[in-house]
Amino acid sequence: MEQVQAMLDGMDDRTAVFGTLFVTTTLLETLLDRAFAPYGITVKQWLLLITISSLFNEPPTVKQVARAMGTSHQNVKQIAVNLEKRGFLQLVKDANDARVTRLITTEACRAFGEETTEAGNAFMGEAFAGIDETDLRGARNTLFTLWQNAMQMK
Predict the structure, then answer these.
(1) Closest by Cα among 10, 18, 55 to 142
(2) 20 to 30 A from 29, CA-CA: which of 19, 62, 95, 127?
(3) Residue 12 has what pLDDT?
(4) How many CB atoms lie within 10 A of CB 65?
(5) Which H, E and C letters describe 55-118, residue by residue?
(6) What is the pLDDT of residues 8-46, one digit of tens each?
(7) How much is the pLDDT for 69?
(8) Are residues 65 and 51 in contact, defined by beta-carbon separation less than 8 angstroms?
(9) What backbone phi and psi angles, to 5 degrees, belong to 58?
(10) What is the pLDDT confidence band of residue 151, given thresholds at 50, 70 and 90?
């Protein structure tokens, strides 16, 4: 760990943040994939479920979820179809426009959320241990700006 810190100290801040962001994302994805394995879902599938349940009051369309996740319609559709096979989602044609597919979470999805809440809170506690509220707010603001910049570059 000290060796990595020494290497990062030798980099300019943007390079260090950019590289650390990717390495941390990969590590967190690996840890969460392992934690979700008993439930038969991946981190990407979990992220789609969280996006639907956290950002939308009504069942969103595939296109709305893709936009919110910063990914393609095809990617969301593929993930959603796999979640439908596992009973976590229903893909339903919109009542007003048959070209539009809406994503509806199921009771199995809600049960999964309830069952994993405590473990999720413990994971978040460990992941953010030692980070005070001021630093956390700064990281949130920085990541949001980085996300906005990436969306403009798209």
Answers:
(1) 18
(2) 62
(3) 87
(4) 24
(5) HCCCCCEHHHHHHHHCCCHHHHHHHHHHHHHCCCEEEEECCCCCCCEEEEECHHHHHHHHHHHH
(6) 677 888 888 888 899 899 999 999 999 999 988 999 999
(7) 92
(8) yes
(9) -115, 155
(10) confident
